[in-house]
Design a protein that fits this description.
The complex is a heterotrimer.
Chain A lengths: L7 E3 L4 H11 L3 E4 L3 H8 L8 E4 L8 E3 L3 E5 L4 H6 L1 H4 L5 H7 L4 H6 L2 H6 L7 H7 L3 E6 L2 E6 L4 E3 L2 E2 L6 E8 L5 E8 L9 E10 L2 E10 L7 E2 L1 H7 L6 H14 L10 H22 L2
Parallel strand pairs in A: 1-3, 2-3
Antiparallel strand pairs in A: 4-5, 5-10, 6-7, 6-10, 8-9, 11-12, 12-13, 13-14
Chain B lengths: L16 H5 L15 E7 L5 E7 L1 H5 L3 E5 L8 E2 L16 E2 L4 E2 L5 E7 L2 H10 L1 E6 L6 H5 L14 E9 L2 H7 L2 E8 L12 E6 L5 E5 L4 H12 L6 E4 L17 H12 L3 E4 L2 H4 L4 E2 L2 E9 L5 E13 L3 H17 L6 E9 L5 E2 L6 H19 L3 H7 L20 H12 L14 E11 L15 E7 L5 E5 L8 H13 L6 E3 L18 H28 L6 E4 L2 E4 L2 E7 H9 L3 E4 L2 E4 L9 E6 L8 E11 L5 E13 L4 H21 L30 E8 L15 H4 L1 H13 L10 H7 L4
Parallel strand pairs in B: 1-14, 12-13, 15-19, 17-18, 22-23, 31-32
Antiparallel strand pairs in B: 1-7, 2-6, 2-8, 3-7, 4-5, 9-18, 10-16, 11-12, 11-14, 16-17, 20-30, 21-22, 21-29, 24-25, 25-26, 27-28, 30-31
Chain C lengths: L2 E7 L2 E7 L5 H8 L18 E4 L2 E4 L12 E3 L12 H9 L8 H14 L5 H7 L11 H10 L7
Parallel strand pairs in C: 1-5
Antiparallel strand pairs in C: 1-2, 3-4, 3-5
Helix pairs in contact in C: 2-5
Classes of the chains: A alpha+beta, B alpha+beta, C alpha+beta.
Chain lengths: ~290, ~775, ~160
């Protein structure tokens, strides 16, 4: 059903203007980038009182930039942009980004943005856990200026982020560790056009031939916010990423996660599949380390 | 088998394909009349409740609102919505009301609004204030049949709408004679029809009270009869306009929905055309396949001869009886009893009311639910007795020429055994390995499922419509128009009818068109359902074309100075048999029939030698004498990932005794599409409801999964075992439904062959596979 | 309150006044009477409404019209040139990929995007590229074949 309460779609041309609009309209305004998530919410009757949508497509936030230390992803970069970026495609560190955006159908890839995918704080979406595994931070702009928010401080609960009412995400910074680091993402879905039943993103690094600073995150409807498998990470760190370590880490992930069940899959299945996906992803990431 | 003329048996392109690839303007969803209003419904949030009070004052004041209907404003007559069951029919349970004061499922309409735009109508509907008195609801068949369960309708006992038994021979003696008795329960789920064009209609009531309606449906005359009945009008006051084609039917558009009568009533109220369309979410509470649980008990001798077949089926009809009351019978008599022969049979079927959404029709109509159990149980028997499943099926099934087990007549053509053997050969049946023998976590397996004896008219119920009618008109340019109430629901019926007429008249298929029609200008036709199009409608258009040809030859005879009996026609010309050089074009003959009797020339009026004048029209209105019996065997190869439980169908071979193939490309499309629905039904599709509230949990394509191109096997082989059935047009039998009846058992059996996991309830999700493997 | 935008639709710059909640699908179907894009679900789940925006396949039911000022929209009506079918359209006709046809226009537009970025896709790439479009009739078999034919990798049977 149409969002009949909508009075206007505002099309600001600067970041400051967006912040001003958010400040003046408060809860009655919502920012929109690709629009795919908002349409989904509207169609299900989950957005009813919004009178203004603020279109972020005219701010020039669709840039991808890299330097030696980090990748900068503008919040309006689409999945198709990410998938098509040679820089990202050739990077073992960033491989999980390409893994994740390869799943959705092309029409979604062409519209959906990285910023929208993260800011929606929807537990079924894939990029949040990838960016978490990559230790990314979000840049938030608001009426009082900009601030960096580590991604693990962003997700509060279902559809809730720690952004203030007048803030929105302008982009993400993904650190690029030195060689010896790789990432991977894989999910379980029913068809090639589905939300995740379980999804896992990992990043592993080897230094002095020992693994360190690993990251394992699980998403895809296992809880209101992404889950970090800390016990599994501990097992991995200090190991040589040998098969046995990967298996143990997967086992630990299964032990520590307490997913919920819904009509799409039971908690038991999600728990078991967490183990399968953690191990598969770790193998994949290990194979990608140059 | 040789082609007939140049049309029958050839891959003729669909006649509407160019229209459909450039925009497809013919769908009912595109009907847009001047001054048209838009209607929306308000639906009940409760599974069972009584409406105590309704307040429409606030909704009425919304600018743009033109009319609001509540239960007080609509006829409270009870009816059955099924198009193919006449309202006065014998086997028809009349328990539905257009908008009653009692709601029996979540999503039942309680009010309707017409407004200038869809948005205003929706807003107004949400402003209607309804006070409900909640009643106790029952959401499972067990709860509905339990002692002291609340009665959903007052006409039933224990909420059982239909309770029927069927018995032949001596089942008890059959069990006594058996060496082994097998007993298992198989369960199928509720799935949605998912025709991509939602239900949509535009009703327009004129100043005389005549109702004209456009609708996306499978039966012109059914809609006329039901709409007239609900509105209390004579049928002559209702005109249903035939759409050039609709966006899919699959049995989901075989009954009147609330939108047709509501839009007509809103049009009467506002004196403007009113359009109503269901949203996708509304579709999920409207057209779902009947869930059935079937308990099978089969006695077998050690050599593999079946001595007795016994079953009991329990169907969740949901809030209203409708299709549930007929699906249960078709399921029992044909889906279950008919497939494999055995003198001793006993079947007990019940269709039970619950406060779930109303169950409806869907391709196969009770057949897939039966075959899922029957085909699996056969494999379970074969494994225990160490028999080959192909040979077991051949041993226990009918052969060509045998008597029909229930009715008069014989299996005129019937090549089921050939289907099994050819299919087995193509899939590599003899290389089949034992369950779970593939090394590694991904295991492959082969499985077989069959669908036999399935076509319309088999039920022989006295009040089941089966007849068709058609007109064929020849034009002065040598082309022919077909007028018929038969609707092309997507299977290419229009093309097939054009091919049949072209072959009968001896004109190129491009010269035949399906013309427009409505209920006032064409004969009655039964619904486009039950795999009957090619066979029953095809026979009728062929008879009408034969009638036209007779007149064509009569006129041509005067032009060629030959007896009509000595004439034949091909390539657009009528010629003298044995002297093809003596010929005249069909265009000339048709033009002569249309031309004036006297031509004015300078020499004065010249009378024409041909005495016959008047457009050449052929007509037929008839009932097929017999519905010839098709049969099919589906073999699939699957890969099962035993780490995740995920199943992929890698390959499918489907062999079908189709009679003569009229259009091979169209026939392949039926097989390929049936397999897709079968994969969806078997592995993923499930319309789910909250077990506490009865609210739909899978109301869109994010939560309701059906296969995309990515889940389909790359290799689908169609083998058509052709026969020339004396009762079909050019020997054609039928196809559509078998294509969905065969896959569920085949896929389930293949999963077992791959892994040793036997899953007896649909859908076979990855989770159920892992549980069956003991890995969850 | 309606907002004005100028959108190039099938090559013609068009001035459109649209309500803010109006989707491109509604604009095309209701205002411009271009009914090739179909409504199938309204939630970006079926693909029947697929059109190209600046050459990229998009769900028109998920796109607000007023955000498209200055953009270029191609619907299926914009493919045929003077009555001559586009290669993808022709391949759908020739292979028998059209049954009920309700998904067809969206499917063709998805295929157009795919072939524009990947002129010789493998079967797997075709199936993946069409995974945003549902069909209930065909089993996709002849649709995949049509895309192979349109890309010159196979003759129509």
């Amino acid at each position: 059903m149409a969002l009949t309460t909508l009075e206007e779609i505002l099309q600001p041309e600067s970041v400051d203007e967006v912040a001003e609009l958010l400040l003046s309209h408060g809860e009655s305004a919502m920012v929109m980038a690709g629009g795919t998530f908002i349409h989904g919410l509207v169609a299900r009757g989950l957005v009813t009182d919004v009178t203004k949508l603020i279109d972020l497509s005219g701010l020039g936030l669709n840039q991808l930039q890299t330097d030696r230390k980090s990748l900068r992803i503008g919040s309006a970069v689409t999945f198709a942009d990410l998938e098509g970026s040679e820089t990202i495609r050739s990077s073992a560190v960033l491989a999980a980004l390409v893994d994740a955006v390869s799943y959705p159908p092309q029409q979604i890839k062409n519209a959906a943005t990285v910023g929208g995918c993260v800011a929606s704080a929807c537990p079924y979406l894939d990029l949040p856990i990838v960016l978490l595994a990559l230790e990314a931070s979000a840049t938030a702009a608001g009426s009082t200026g900009k601030r960096e928010i580590p991604l693990d401080e962003l997700f509060v609960s279902l559809f809730q982020t720690s952004l203030n009412t007048d803030e929105f995400i302008t982009g993400f910074t993904v650190p690029l560790p030195s060689a010896g680091t790789a990432s991977s993402f894989e999910k379980i879905e029913t068809t090639a056009n589905d939300l995740s039943i379980v999804s896992v993103a990992v990043r592993v690094s080897t230094g002095w031939r020992k693994s360190r600073n690993s990251r394992i995150f699980v998403g895809g409807g296992i809880g209101e916010v992404p889950f970090r498998c800390r016990a599994a990470e501990v097992i991995l760190d200090g190991s040589k990423l040998e098969d046995e370590a990967l298996r143990k880490a997967a086992g630990a992930a299964v032990e520590e996660i307490e997913p919920f069940g819904d009509h799409r899959a039971s908690a038991e299945y999600r728990k078991a599949m967490t183990g399968v996906l953690v191990e598969r992803n770790l193998r994949q990431a290990r194979a990608r380390i140059q | 088998m040789a082609t007939i003329s140049d049309t029958v048996g050839t891959r003729v392109r669909h006649h509407d394909a160019i229209d459909k690839v450039t925009g497809g303007r013919g769908y009912p969803v595109n009907v847009n009349l001047a001054g048209m209003l838009h209607g929306r419904m308000l639906r009940s949030p409760y599974a069972h409740a009584r409406i105590v009070r309704m307040d429409i004052d606030e909704a009425k004041t919304l600018p743009g609102v033109r009319a609001i209907l509540t239960p007080d404003d609509v006829p409270q007559v009870k009816y059955s919505p099924i198009y193919f069951m006449p309202t006065e029919g014998l086997a028809c349970i009349q328990d539905m009301t257009l908008m009653g004061r009692t709601v029996r499922h979540v999503g039942q309409p309680v009010a309707a609004v017409a407004a200038d735009t869809m948005e205003i109508a929706e807003q107004a509907a949400q402003l209607i204030d309804v006070e409900y008195e909640e009643l106790p609801a029952v959401l499972t068949v067990e709860d509905a049949m339990a002692d002291g369960a609340p009665a959903i309708h007052d006409y039933t006992s224990g909420n059982v709408a239909v309770d029927e038994t069927f018995e032949t021979g001596d089942p008890d003696a059959g069990f006594a004679a058996a060496d082994h008795v097998f007993e298992q329960t198989y369960e199928t789920q509720r799935i949605n029809v998912c025709a991509l064009e939602p239900h949509v209609c535009v009703a327009d009531v004129d100043a005389y009270g005549n109702v004209t309606i456009h609708s996306s449906m499978q039966h012109l005359f059914g809609l006329r009869e039901k709409l007239a009945f609900v509105l209390g009008l004579p049928v002559s006051k209702v005109k249903v306009v035939k759409p050039p084609y609709i966006g899919g039917g699959f049995g989901g558009k075989l009954d009147i929905t609330p939108i047709e009568p509501l839009s007509a009533l809103l049009s009467m109220e506002t004196h403007r055309p009113v359009r109503m369309a269901l949203s996708r979410a509304e579709e999920f509470v409207t057209s779902n396949k009947c869930p059935i649980r079937i308990r099978l008990k089969t006695g077998v001798k050690s050599d593999g001869t079946i001595t007795v077949r016994e079953a009991s089926s329990l169907l969740d009809a949901g809030a209203y009886a409708t299709h549930g009351s007929t699906v249960i019978m078709v399921h029992g008599l044909f889906g279950y009893c008919f497939t494999y022969k055995c003198p001793n049979r006993r079947w007990h079927g019940r269709s039970v009311h619950t406060n779930n959404v109303t169950s409806g029709g869907f391709r196969g109509y009770g057949g897939p639910q039966a075959s899922f159990g029957v085909e699996q149980q056969i494999d379970e028997i074969c494994e225990k007795l160490e028999l080959d499943p192909v040979e077991f099926r051949i041993r226990n099934s009918h052969s060509e020429g045998e008597d029909h087990p229930f009715f008069d007549g014989t299996f005129t053509t019937y090549r089921f055994h050939e289907c099994l053997r050819k299919g087995a050969e193509r899939i590599g049946w003899s290389d089949r390995t034992a369950p779970g023998s593939d090394p590694g976590p991904v295991k492959t397996g082969i499985g077989l499922g069959c669908a036999v004896t399935w076509t319309s008219n088999c039920t022989a119920q006295p009040d089941l419509y089966e007849h068709s009618g058609a007109f064929i008109k020849l034009n002065p340019d040598g082309s022919a128009d077909i007028a018929s109430a038969a609707i092309d629901i997507g299977c290419g019926q229009n093309t097939i009818f054009c091919q049949i007429v072209a072959a009968e008249l001896g004109i190129p298929v491009e010269m035949v068109r399906m013309s427009s029609a409505d209920t006032s200008n064409v004969p009655f036709d039964a619904p486009m359902h039950a795999s009957r199009g090619t066979n029953a409608v095809g026979a009728t258009v062929k008879a009408a074309a034969a009638d036209a040809r007779e007149q064509l030859f009569r006129v041509a005879g005067t032009m060629l100075d030959a007896s009509p009996d000595d004439l034949d026609a091909k390539d657009g010309r009528v010629f003298v048999k044995g002297a093809e050089i003596v010929s005249v074009s069909i265009a000339e003959v048709a033009a002569r029939a249309d031309s004036p009797l006297v031509t004015m020339t300078r020499q004065g009026p010249q009378p024409d030698a041909t005495p016959y004048r008047g457009t050449i029209i052929g007509s037929a209105a008839m009932n097929p004498a017999v519905s010839p019996i098709p049969a099919g065997a589906m073999f699939v190869q699957v890969a099962v990932n035993t780490d995740t439980g995920e199943v992929r169908v890698l390959r499918a071979v489907y062999a079908h005794d189709i009679g003569r193939v009229i259009n091979p490309a169209g026939a392949e499309g039926q097989v390929e599409g049936g397999l897709q629905q079968g994969i969806g039904y078997t592995l993923m599709e499930h319309t789910q409801f909250d077990p506490e509230t009865g609210a739909c949990l899978s109301g869109d394509f994010l939560d309701y999964k059906m296969p995309t191109a990515f889940e389909m096997p790359a290799e689908i082989e169609c083998i058509f075992i052709e026969s020339d059935d004396p009762n079909g047009p050019f020997g054609a039998k039928s196809l559509s439904e078998c294509c969905l009846i065969a896959p569920p058992g085949a896929i389930a059996n293949a999963i077992y062959n791959a892994t040793g996991a036997r899953v007896r309830d649909l859908p076979i999700t990855p989770e159920k596979v892992l549980r069956a493997l003991g890995r969850l | 309150m309606k907002q004005k935008v100028t959108i190039t639709v099938n090559g013609e710059p068009t001035e459109i006044w649209a309500a803010p909640h109006e989707t491109l699908l509604e604009t095309l179907r209701n205002d411009m009477h271009l009914v090739g894009a179909k409504q199938g679900c309204d939630t970006g789940g079926c693909g029947c409404c697929t059109v190209l925006i600046d050459g990229q396949s998009r769900y028109s039911c998920m796109t607000y019209t007023v955000t498209l000022d200055g953009r270029d929209v191609t619907s299926v009506e914009g493919l045929a040139d003077n009555g001559e079918l586009d290669a993808v359209q022709q391949a759908f006709v020739d292979t028998g990929a059209v049954q009920c046809g309700y998904c067809t226009c969206g499917m063709i537009m998805a295929a157009k995007h795919l072939l524009s970025v990947n002129p010789k896709p493998t079967d797997r790439e075709i199936r993946k590229g069409l995974s945003g479009n549902l069909c209930r009739c065909t089993g996709y078999h002849k649709i995949v074949e049509a895309v192979r034919v349109a890309s010159g990798q196979q003759e129509a049977s």
